[in-house]
Amino acid sequence: MRSWFMSDLKPNTAADVTETQPSKGQARQVTFRGGGFAPASHRWIGVLVFVLLLALAELGTRQGWISPLTLPLPSDVLKTFGELYASGLLWAHMSVSLTRLFIGALLGASLGVATGVLIGLFSYVRAGLVPLTAALFPIPKIALLPLFVIWFGIDEGSKYALIAFGTFTPTVVATYGAVDNVDRSLIRMGQSFNLSWFSIVRKIVLPGAMPGILSGLRISLAIAIILLVAAEMLGAEYGIGAYILEAGSLYDLERLFAGVTILSLLGVTLSATIGFIERRVLGWRQ
């Protein structure tokens, strides 16, 4: 028993080492262990999900499983789209809504990013603005619409202000959180190479915070679309929100779902735009 046990503990012979180890002239192939967490692009799956949902809705409504008073036929909604396009009202509503969304979101996002960066870089700014941001962030922005109407009037000013304010606060929170999450060892490395403060901010802090900033913009732009609809439901003749309000008051489900679909397509377009910017700006992460 002892001799058999000790024989198992003997070191490998030179022949065994030669068999298990590659020769000096050969390159040893090592399994790549960095993959598995990078998102792969499978766009056709998302399209397939939408097609299946539309097919189920069409089949369920035609077979009577779903009441047409609850969910209209997707084919009828598509027909309504065609009528809306042919009448020219589609562009009339879309152009007004896109203008309001662009101006309001641009003001709110640009101010939010600038404020968030200042909070992340300067302790005095953080001490003064973080409590104010924490107080403003939980307020339902739609509840402030009557106040903005009193301040800026019922015309375009109140709509721009509501969208800008609703975009501003989540962008601030996402931006200074992204600046805080920048790896401090990279900053210390830049200091060890005697980089100036401005160079560290431009070459290390801002690129490192950009993924978090863009993720925050996705959320902010979604909130901007919600506030756009709410603003257009008050004193607006044209706009997607006004179109949905009119269709809902007439219980026209085809037009109502057509307006909701426009908002969904708008959200998908904005998300795809942010994704395009991420691929362009954050190529260094590959």
UniProtKB/TrEMBL annotation:
Source domain of life: Bacteria
Spans traversing the lipid bilayer: 44-65, 101-125, 132-154, 160-179, 219-244, 256-277
Keyword set, alphabetical order: Cell membrane, Membrane, Transmembrane, Transmembrane helix, Transport
Principal place of residence: membrane
Keyword Ribosomal protein set for record: no
Entry protein name: ABC transporter permease
Domain (ABC transmembrane type-1): residue spans on this chain: 94-278
Keyword Phosphoprotein in annotation: no
